Structures
1.
Amino acid sequence: MTAVEVDDVTFAYGEQPVVERVTLDIDEGEFLGLVGPNGSGKTTLLKLMIGLHRPDNGTVTLFDEPAHAFDDGERIGYVPQDVTTAQSEMPITVREAVRMGRYPYRWVGRFDDGDRRAIDGAMERVGITDLADRRVGRLSGGQRQRVFIARAIASEADLLALDEPTVGVDAESRETFYDLLHGLNDEGLTIVLIEHDIGVVTTHASEIACLNRELFFHGDPERFVETNALADAYGGAQGVVHHDH
Ligand code: ADP
């Protein structure tokens, strides 16, 4: 089964396309790392994938529906890049934010023990149990990301889309974070993630897509490291270092 199908997609904010003729599928259960230089269209492509932008040309299909018309939002967990500023005024607690992930299961009626277990389990899973009664707006960026992920877990999301989730996070916390993502991916969650650190992403992702407006590479990480796609995408830029972890 395919989670996301991007078929010959072009998108422009103004005159010039920032994503051009990109074709790419994400299979269910895949862990796709999206890489490319700054301004290469990664965030835009991620938003196209989850229906936050509509292509000018081509189609994006999300779980067999046109992405822009996809209305089962709780199946998609999205952790935006600006999570540190997003909802900084959010007056709700961590537990309330995670509980929102259960709303689709409770159009009518009260939260039951199953919901409470899902909410508590999701908070424990990402290590925010001790923050349950804190206001989301008072948390650090990293903690807030975990709230978003816990909410996706509580809602039993099928796809998690993360935009540079480990920027500004120290190496140790980053490893813990990737361990969490691996665990979720092993349980069947499809993951697409933008990561600026090529060494980290080629270690962790099962597939790599390298973008610079157009798609320069899509395939497995080993092949990506062997090819020249990265240098091509960066216009032969120096200072791109592969390193193993
Ligand atoms: P990346 O995530 O690879 O850094 P983006 O998708 O954020 O790239 O941006 C691609 C290009 O589109 C950049 O030139 C950026 O300045 C431009 N861009 C991004 N968002 C907007 C927007 N809302 N309006 C106009 N231009 C935008």
Note: The chain has two domains: 1-71+170-187+212-237, 88-157.
2.
Amino acid sequence: MSFAAVDVIRAKRDGGRLTGEQIAWVVDAYTRGVVAEEQMAALAMAIFLRGMDAGEIVAWTGAMIDSGERLTLDVSRPTVDKHSTGGVGDKITLPLAPLVAACGAAVPQLSGRGLGHTGGTLDKLESVPGWRAELSTVEIVRQLDEVGAVVCAATEGLAPADRKLYALRDVTGTVESIPLIASSIMSKKIAEGSSGLVLDVKTGSGAFMKTPDQARELARTLVEIGTAHGVSTTAVLTGMGTPLGRAVGNAVEVAEAVEVLQGGGPADVVSLTLTLAREMLALAGLSTVDPVEVLASGAAYRTWRRMILAQGGDPDAPLPTPRHVQVVEASQDGVLSTLDACSVGLAAWRLGAGRARRGDPVQHAAGILCHAKPGDAVVAGQPLLELHTDTPGAVPSALKALESAFTISADDEAPASTGEGLVLEILR
Ligand code: URA
């Protein structure tokens, strides 16, 4: 069935509901270049302003999946994946994928690169010498079967409509729309072929969704889309007001993930990894397996090593170190009461850990170590933050981003960052 693009735009502009046929046609015609960029820009703005109902969002997601291939993961273990909407210091995929694999599931984690202040999993892993992000579909399926976990770049054939539309939304002020964000995330994840999906929907200063209400609406929409498309989906709402763990950047986050896999690491990272692992195992029909025991046994760390080796990486090679380190000290005695995720993420990005434009390189050694977390007692002169970069000229602008990043209070009322309270709600 064929339509005039302008009629579809007018229908949404005037607050109407698009039919499944209109949606299938417009997404397909846009992917083929028949609907022009300016027409899709107008439609994206109309959707941004008018919204879409649940049926439209499910149909829009389906059309984006149909724009490319949907992988068939023919493996002997149950498949389950995790996706995070992105946060500062969010390295959870790195310990989580090998942990859940060591518990008996197969975790196909096809990821993107970072843009802006939240880092990308591939950029972090590329700080491991020799590690390769690009795998063919045959390699992905083989590694899933043999190792149980694969973290790699999404193949070109997955949801090409989303790649084109996301680039357009980026330059037309239409990113921050729940129907468009939800369909974008889910089209890629559903096309990846996993049977179960756990979504870590973040809220707070370092997240896309600044308020819990927005995050809850996104979470509900994501679960509805997954369920309608036959993927068992759970969403976990988590706080992102302060960085996760102590490391923000690339190599520093890999080092912290390895600490967790070796039985240590910050309490909040360990706690969130275990919460998400339990939800993934429940979807995979493996809820009798205890991820705490598997982590303590060293099996998850052994799977991490196999996962890195399978993609050409050397798990024993030293990680890159920065050419320049700058320390920010506490100005007074007291308790660190706040450490703002958005400011720390922005500072790490300015130090070179992230990129401003798609395709730019990142510095693998760049990032920030938080020597104190909210709730920690501090004394004047002690190191609070350690800034890592290969380009010392970037330090002044990073310091500017950190100007009001933290507060030290004289009393000791701030709660310690144990990971408790990080999970706000679980939607199934
Ligand atoms: N992440 C995505 O994959 N898509 C969006 O639209 C926003 C965040």
Note: Residues 80-157+174-316 form a domain with the Pyrimidine Nucleoside Phosphorylase; Chain A, domain 2 fold (CATH 3.40.1030.10).
